[in-house]
Amino acid sequence: MYRSFVGNCLIREMEFRWHFILYSLINLIWMVLALVTFVFIYGHVSLIGSWTLPQMLLLTATFYFFDRVFDTLFEINFSRLNHLVNQGDLDLVLTKPVSGQFLVSLRYFSFASLFGAISMLGLIIWLIARYFWPLAPGELLIYALLLCFGLVIIYSWWFSTLLLVFWLGNIDNINQLFRPIYEVVRIPIDITGPILKPLLTFVIPLAFVATVPVQVFTRGANYYMLLYGLVAAAASLWLSHRLWRFALRHYTSASS
């Protein structure tokens, strides 16, 4: 089923290829500017906190890789949930013999965002090979696992904030409600201070977006954080599903 979704989205992207090309280029320019900004900053300082320029570039590349993967899979769908609920189209989704949460979360696939993810992945590979090689055994795998845990965590928290639409009605750009919190993790979590650091690591574990994965290369693998990431991802996903089920019990069809 998901393969057919992706295929349909690819056909749609090719019908609007100039939109695809321009969106991809704008995304790439935006990410390059963010990286160049740190190059200029490190022209005047040697460290930000305990982070060197190569470490900060890897953190930034990891964040934008994560962000573009998230946009590829989820953000394009999150922007449609408000319409689904308030125009009654969710009724049709709920009649399908498939999880409603799966359909509203993964129905569409953004190939334009995928281009940005591939670009950042190439930069990540180059940075690791240039500044962090050789690696200890298993570090690449742990880095990838932590990113996967982070993706599940961010999806779950972000999706949960969207469910407010079931009670508050038509809210434009509700899919952007969580973004200001999420954007904090573009910087190293360990320089955010004694309050935000534990909050963003253990309570709302956004540190798994970039900081914790990159620390595998800068400080070595932390197996306690790997285990905590697994638990946090599983708990966050379970909670988001429970909230989805709770929201559906309060759903009144807009078409009725």
Automatic annotation (TrEMBL):
Domain of life: Bacteria
Keyword rRNA-binding: no
Pfam entry (one): ABC2_membrane_6
Membrane-spanning ranges: 20-42, 48-66, 108-129, 141-169, 199-217, 223-240
This protein's UniProt keywords: Membrane, Transmembrane, Transmembrane helix
InterPro entries xrefs: ABC-2_transporter-like
PANTHER family attached to this UniProt entry: SLR0610 PROTEIN (PTHR36833:SF2), SLR0610 PROTEIN-RELATED (PTHR36833)
Protein name in UniProt: ABC transporter permease
Native source species: Candidatus Beckwithbacteria bacterium RIFCSPHIGHO2_12_FULL_47_17
